[in-house]
Amino acid sequence: MTDTGYSQMRPGFQFLVFIAIMVVMLVIGVLIAIGVITLMYNFDTFMKVSQLQIDGPQDVRALWIIQFITTTMPILAVPVFFAYVVVKEPESYLKVKTGFPLQLLILVFFIMFMSLPIMEQLSNINERLILPPFLKNIEDWMREHEKAAEKATNILLKMDTVWDMIKAVLFVGGLTAVVEELMFRGALQTIFIRWTKNHHAAIWITAALFSAFHMEFFGFLPRLMLGVFFGYFVYWSGSIWTSIWAHFINNGTAVVLTYLYQHKTIKTNPDDTHVFSLLGYVFSIIITVLLLINYRNIAIAGNGNLTADGTELD
What we know:
Keywords: Hydrolase, Membrane, Metalloprotease, Protease, Transmembrane, Transmembrane helix. It is a single chain. The chain is mainly α. Helices cover 76% and strands 0% of the residues. The chain has helices spanning 4-8, 11-40, 43-50, 57-86, 90-94, 103-114, 116-128, 136-156, 162-196, 199-213, 220-237, 240-262, 278-302. The longest helix is centred in the middle third of the chain and has 35 residues, at 162-196.
């Protein structure tokens, strides 16, 4: 692992530069989206759709375009630009290597599904959280933002055909997983590992930023835990593809279940709160931990950058 870029720029300063690049990219994304939507339709369409005033199929298409240009592409551009141009360590900061044991992908699949009761319980706890009275204005703002995000999601995931579902799986499940993992588990987690010199702290900090980035307070805890899982998947294996696969499973499953519910193939609303029995929670925790231990042992054995105890080599 080369340390050329690391030796030239301290991790703390790397983080500040990374944030600055992200702000610039997001602003550029908004400006490009305004231009594209204005050329395709008109400026009023951009303003209307930005406020989630959707009147027909044209507005839905415009919303997809705005989402892609203002969010997805900037999130992809930031870590790629940072890794190749700023620190000049794409291998270390993007971790796109594919030389990892393929059985890890199978383990990730089972970990994601066996941990569902854990995530549901964290979600239930999160929904019951109430901020102190002096933070009521902040809580009200978060609830309003949550409603707006839910409305946008419902519009984007209104799927009339199987082809609509496939497109949503590819975009929400696949592309979103790629760009978010490159940014968080690729660049940011690497920065924090080098900054804190403690991979556990770096993984949890990155997971907290990942959850906060989605601006959905009442889903913070389950998304935090997902981020922790993704972080360890990458750290132990040395490859971003393990967390991309996990992220894809999480998002893609939600899209498919939403489609099935919309077409009355299943009766359970995937957005509803689900409660498992105590035995279900205990079973979920035990099996998930055992699978994680198995994943860790196989991943470390196949990752030349880690010692047997999981410590990263210099």
